[in-house]
Each structure stands twice: as structure tokens, then as C-alpha cells.
Amino acid sequence: MALDWEAIFATRAGRMRASEIRELLKLLEQPDIISFAGGIPDPALFPKEAFREAYASVLANGSAGAALQYSTSEGFPPLRDWIMRQMQALGVPCKPDNILITSGSQQALDYLGKLLLSPGDTALVTWPTYLGALQAFNAYEPRYDRLTPVHGNRTPAAYREAAAKAGGRVKFAYLTPDFANPTGETLDQEARERLLDLAGDLDIAVIEDTAYQSLRYDGKGVPSMLALDVARRGDIDATRTISCGSFSKTLAPGLRMGWICAASHVIRKLVLMKQASDLHSPTINQMAMHHVAEHAFAQQVEKVRSAYRHRRDHMLAALQRHMPEGVSWTRPEGGMFIWVTLPDHLDGAELLARAIETARIAFVPGRAFHADGTGGNTLRLSFSLASDEAIDEGIKRLGRVISEAL
Amino acid sequence: MALDWEAIFATRAGRMRASEIRELLKLLEQPDIISFAGGIPDPALFPKEAFREAYASVLANGSAGAALQYSTSEGFPPLRDWIMRQMQALGVPCKPDNILITSGSQQALDYLGKLLLSPGDTALVTWPTYLGALQAFNAYEPRYDRLTPVHGNRTPAAYREAAAKAGGRVKFAYLTPDFANPTGETLDQEARERLLDLAGDLDIAVIEDTAYQSLRYDGKGVPSMLALDVARRGDIDATRTISCGSFSKTLAPGLRMGWICAASHVIRKLVLMKQASDLHSPTINQMAMHHVAEHAFAQQVEKVRSAYRHRRDHMLAALQRHMPEGVSWTRPEGGMFIWVTLPDHLDGAELLARAIETARIAFVPGRAFHADGTGGNTLRLSFSLASDEAIDEGIKRLGRVISEAL
Fold first, then answer.
1. In angstroms, rounded to a whole number, what is the distance separating the alpha carbons of residues A57 and B52?
2. From the CA atom positions of chain B, what is the Rg in Å?
3. Same-domain pairing of B270 and B320
4. Treating both helix axes as pointing N-terminal to C-terminal, what angle do B48-58 and A48-58 enclose, rounded to 10 degrees?
């Protein structure tokens, strides 16, 4: 492999880095490499028959004209209603005008960066955090400061002063409370409440990414940040939490469909932004997604959970067997990722180069997910695409590569 | 109707105005109103059977997994190839890396505003121009200056000095050379060459919107700005013209699918922007659109041309019969719109209010399309959705309403 590892991993987190990671993932798609790098759902689990029925139904004579025509920027009303009912079931009383359909949650993050950030403003994120969020926000030239919701954040004054010194204001906190990409970790209710306190003190928005929320394999669900915020304020229209959801991890990512649930005055601003940026998400996909959601969501979530739960368990067991002393990892209650921490003196990027050359296995080095370029001794393993055999063999080889590097 | 006309039309062109026009169009969707307001294609002409076959084929066992999965930001390679061949046939030698798939040409305009404009920079547009372009660009806070390509533009120095005085630089010229929305007018080759000269002198980009290019009903095609630019420079990668295309007016708008064709170094920047803003356009739609384009594009364009040609002719004949002295209008060689100029003292917005109240007919007042709020005595008529009977009766009523106002 003629990859320039230094060029790929030495830059500051940003536009180029995220795109380079994606380039890297493409390069790693070689048949003889066992890859735990890609963070994508298993296409074998997609509800293909339900989508076939949905598109056929949507393109039947009565509705084909509407499916192929322009539609409103807010989104297809029955789909907004379906999402509204889902949100209600998750403890968020809301109305259709609290919901905007977006082209994946990536578009939601882009819009929120555009809405909230001026150059030099501060966005609070965890170290590590979702790479696509950094990529979306970077277009609006923020500074990042660090949230540490588990161990206790800094004081509001400390965040405020650091932001002012950098010439801007703290504008929002972004986080994935459930089974985060890349760590797999879930915030407990107390940490969520403390984060709402901090956001209240700073008077900033909270952007909650719920992409993996439905993929819980065990343990008890924790109320979402938005549910907790509504419980405090009594009314979604009085909340500061903006919740970004997605069908990508439950039904399918190829339709690029997600949503934002938030106070209606926020949604109204985002609708104008949507109209200016792409008019609306594709009508036909919204109608088809509504059909599949109505007919197959619950079974599909059960199917996906069961498959990924098995893979997570299998990978955790393999790690237990094969990792040398001094290596630790997360035990996620859901999602797609396990986060591995190596002894301090090891570097994930160097390890990857060696792992590909000598063992034909791949993962994503953890530094990429850190806004400040730290995290060199970490790496992300995805179990969503791996067979039992690939996990057994791949984790065995990973253990060997790490042992040799120690 | 309890519409606040002053509020709707008195504001400066911008975000709110465009969205208000769209609100207005929704309000006008009443069964007893004959509307020439909406600028949308006729759903009766959509190639429904071809789309049915396309989605069934794409969701067949061999390809369903790929159709529902994530894909690359550049776009589905066979669709990029198809567009490349179309561009080549239109006199633009190019390669796949000169093509980016976008979510409609609206997204292309948004990206180009984001790529090229800083607040206070100048965008050159015609008065009137496409409302959606103003809406997309406004997010990046430009100043507008006026192109007059038919009668001769101002000098490069004049544009440059005005831009500097406003605290920015001229960044691009935007125009729809063929059958423009809203005027229906087409620029001759000489005007296109002059505009390329001006862009060269100013060293700015030219954004060419080709949304209606395939909808020519008579007269001889004029080479696109990009084709002329390539002819001058010898290589697309040396050109300054960025061409935005769309399937919305030929195949269907509900899939939100368009493209940008430009120098590969421009496309590379836009691919990173696409990745950060929504990862990629929906995989399934790109595959389905490719299928329909391969199997039905030529016949479909013929069918649409024939239907709209008839409606244009019918509306021009009705205008000839019913318009009072002092009213003039364009005779478009293609597209969907006829542009009517009233005597100076009449106001299109006032006339619309009266037309709805007393005659139950609707159109879009022309001031909305002018970046400076002029054009009060103009209006846009769309013939794309109207039956012969609606045209006969509606234009007769319009003539009466104008006569009464004179």
C-alpha cells in the first residue's frame, strides 16, 4: 500500500481529514483485508422486499404523479406524522410543525452549523466525536472546546471566557448520547441532566444526534436529551435541544433520510434554509420511506438488533481472548462500534499501517475523531459488517499486531 | 382572500420574498382559480411507466443492497457517464471527473454561493432573474449588480469599482441563457461571447443554469456558455464556466436530481462540500434516474416538447386576441414562461390582487424576480400546466382585468 500515513493523519481535524478518512476506507475495500474500519450498516439486513413494495405502491397510478412532482420543504406530511408519533412514544410530546425532513442527519448537522455558527464561535464537542459532525461544522469555521460529560464539564464561566478570548461565543453543545460513534458509549441520565444545566447556564443550544438510538441490545433506555428538556420546560417549543434523527441505521441509508425535531420557531428557520438549499428532500423517497416505516419498522429494528447484538457479543469475546495486557475497550450497549485504548506509547495510525502490511486487517485510528488531534493511542472497531469467522480471525491478528508493537 | 399584498411584495428580494412567493403559490391552489402562476412541469407528462420499471429493476435482488446503501459523494458512476455523454453531444468534451451529481440544480446554486461568495461580494445577475437563485445566493449575503447581456453590459471597470465601493469583489455572473425563468428569453451567441469577454476581463466565474435547455420548441439551438468557453480555451479544465443542469423539467423533479459540469478542480472542491453537507444524493434515485435516462430520455423530451409547444402557441394566440393596446410580451422559443410588460403605471402585484378577486385568475407579479425590487409593471405567465380551455378563458379574463385597470 502506497498510502502517505503522515499526510492522512497529521493534519488538524477538519474538512480534509474527514474526506481523507473516507478515501482511506475506499482503499481498504480489498477482498483479502478483514476490515473493521467502515461504519456502515450490513446491506444483507436491509428490508428489501418492503422497499420493493413501497416503491411499487408509491408509483401506482393514483400517486405516481405526486411522487415524481415537487413537494413542500417541510416534508411529506404522513412521514412527519409518523416521526411525530415515534417521538411522542419516546417521551417527546410534539406536533408536525416540530419536525423537518432532512436528507440524512448529515444535512441536519450542516444546517445547524449554518444556522448557529459564525466564524470564530465555539462549538462544544466530546473528544472523540463523530467525524461527519466535525466535517459539517468546519464549513462554518468554528473553534472547538471540549465537553467531558461523564467526568464533569468545566464551569460555564470557563467555557465562556475561552470562547470570548477566541473572538466568538459558545453557540451549542453537540453530542450522541446513545452508543456514540466512535466510542460506543452511552451517557447516563445524570450526565444528560448536567449537560442541560450547563447549556442553560451558557444559554446555548444542545444538538442531540440520535442516529443509533433504536439500536439498543441490552440495558435500560435512557430518556433522550430532548425528552429531558421537554420534561423540564413543559413544552417542546420552550426547549433548547435540537434532536437529529435518521433512518440510515434502521431501514436504509441509501435514501438519505433523516429529520430534525425541535421547537417550532427553530424548525421554521430551518425550513427556509432547506428551501434555499435544495427545495425539499425527494418526494418519492419520503413516500416510500413512510410506507416502509408504517409496514416494517418494528420488525426491522428487531431483526437488526438481533444481528448486531450477536456480532457485538462475538467481538467482545474475541477481544477478551486475544488482547494483550494493557489494552482496554468499551462494552457498548448498542450501536456499531467498540473503542479500543492502547498503551500510551502506541500510535493507532502507525499500528494500522503495520496491521495492513503484516496482517491484512483494518480499523480506523482514533486520532481522526479528536478535534485537537489527540487520541493517538486509540482505535475504532466496527462490528456491523463482520461475520463470526472474520471477527475470530481478525481480532486474533489484531492481538498479534499489538503484542508485536508493545 | 386575506393576503397581505404589501407584506408579500414590499420587501427587498431575498430569503423571505422567495419563500413568500412559494406560500402565495400554495394559497392560489384553489379549484376555481385558473392559475398561470406555478412554474412546475405537468405531472400528466411524467414517464411513470419508465420510473416503475426503473425502481423495480434497481430493487431486484442483484442490485437492491447497493441501491439502499451509502455511496460516493461524486455520484453514481453510470449516471455521471450518461451526463458526460450528453454534455459531449452538446459540444462540451469532458470526463466523468468534470461531473458532480447534485440534489437538483437548487443545491448546485447553493454550493456555488457557498464556494464563491463572502458577505459583501458582488454577484452579477440579470433583472429579472430566477428567484431560486437569489434565494440560494442570499444565504451568503452578496450584493447584486445588473447584467444587461442583450443591450451590452457595463464596462469591467464600472462593475469592479462598484463592487469595491461596496466592500467586496465581483465573484461571478449567473444567468439562464435558454428560455430563462421568468422571461422565456434566449441569449444569442454574440451576447454569450460578450459575457465570456466580460467574465475574462473581470476574472470571475460564469454560472450557467441550463434547466430548460432541452425544451426548445423551434428556432436553432445556441451553443451553451460552457461549450463556447471550451471552444475558446481548448480544454474544460481551463474554463471559467460552471454549468448547472437538471432532470426536473425533462424527466421528473420529485427525485431532486441535477448536476454540475465544470473544470475538475472546481468539481473536487464541490465534492468535499457535498460530502460535508449531505454525504451524497440518494443512491436509489441515481440508479433509477440512470435507468430512465438510458431507456426513455429521447422519447420523453420529444413528448414534453410537443405538449409544451402546443400550449405556448395556444397562449401566444390568446394573448394576441385578448391583450389591450400598450401590453407587450415575449415569444419564447422554449421553456415554460411568457413575460408580460404592462404600461408603466400599472403594478403587477395590485393587478394580481384584483385578478384573483374579480376574475379568479392568477400569475406571478414580476417585481419578485428583480434583485432591486423594480419591475413593478411586469408579470410572469406559465403555460406548462394549462389546458387549451384554461388558456382561452384565463387569458380572456386577464385581458379584461388589465383593460379595466388601464
1. 10
2. 21
3. no
4. 180
Number of domains in chain A: 2
Which among A19, A48, A66 has the least Cβ separation from residue B275?
A19
CATH code: domain of residue A310: 3.90.1150.10
CA–CA dist B187, B178 (Å, integer): 7
Question: Span B203-211, mean pLDDT?
Answer: 98
Which of residues B296, B328, B355 is at a domain's end?
Answer: B296
Under the banding of pLDDT at 50, 70 and 90, the label for residue A17 is low
* Cα–Cα dist A216/B333, whole Å: 59
First to last CA, chain B: 23
What's the pLDDT score for residue B30? 78
Do B304 and B372 have their domain in common? yes
Interface contact B41-A279, CB threshold 8 A = no
> Which residues on chain B are in Cβ contact (under 8 Å) with A52?
56, 59, 64
Give the DSSP letter of residue A203.
T
- Domain termination site, one of B266, B296, B326: B296
Transcribe A242-304 into DSSP letters. Answer: EEEEESTTTT-STT--EEEE--HHHHHHHHHHHHHHHSSS-HHHHHHHHHHHHHHHHHHHHHH
Residue A1 in this model has a pLDDT that exceeds 50: no
In the structure grid, which three cell numbers stand for residue B366, read together? 414580476
Q: How many CB atoms lie within 10 A of CB A353?
A: 17
Kindly state whether residues B128 and B150 are assigned to the same domain: yes
Same domain, A211 and A67: yes
CATH number reported for the structural domain that contains residue A59 in this entry: 3.40.640.10
Residue pLDDT, tens place only, B101-124: 999 999 999 999 999 999 999 999
Contacts for B303 with CB less than 8 Å, ≥ 6 apart: B45, B47
**Assign residue B253 a region: left if phi > 0, alpha if psi is -120 to 50, beta otherwise?**
alpha
Complex confidence, ipTM: 0.94
Tell whether the model's pLDDT for residue A11 goes beyond 60. Answer: no
Phi-psi region of B395 (alpha: psi -120 to 50; beta: other; left: phi over 0): alpha
Contact B15, B139 (CB under 8 A): yes
What pTM did the predictor assign? 0.94
Could you tell me if A82 and A225 lie in one domain? yes
The answer to whether A253 faces chain B, any CB pair under 8 Å, is: yes
Residues B386 and B285 grouped into a single domain: no
Contact at CB, A68 and B252, closer than 8 angstroms: yes
Whether the pLDDT of residue A143 is over 80: the answer is yes
Residue B345, CA distances (Å) to A41, B342, B373, B405 in order: 63, 8, 15, 10
- CA distance, residue A343 to nearest chain B CA (Å): 33
Digit-coded pLDDT (tens) for B322-342: 999 999 999 999 999 999 999
**Would you call B103 an interface residue with chain A, using a CB distance cutoff of 8 Å?**
yes
Contact between A282 and B255 using a beta-carbon 8 Å cutoff = yes
Residues B28 and B60 in one domain: no
Question: What does A9-23 look like in DSSP terms, one character per residue?
Answer: HHSPSSHHHHHHHHH
The DSSP-derived string for A44-101 is GGS-HHHHHHHHHHHTSTTTHHHHHS---TT--HHHHHHHHHHHHHTT----GGGEEE
Nearest-by-CA chain A residue for B52 = A59
pLDDT in tens, A262-299: 999 999 999 999 999 999 999 999 999 999 999 999 99
Same domain? A272 vs A161: yes
CB atoms B52 and A59 under 8 Å: yes
Nearest-CB residue to A106 (from B18, B68, B277): B277
Question: Who contacts B139 (Cβ-Cβ below 8 Å, separation ≥6)?
Answer: A114, A273, A276, A277, B15, B110, B113, B114
Confirm if A227 and A245 have CB atoms less than 8 A apart: no
Q: Which range of residues forms the domain containing residue B91?
A: 49-296
Residue of chain B nearest A137, judged by CA positions: B276
Is the Cβ of A51 closer than 8 Å to some Cβ of chain B? yes
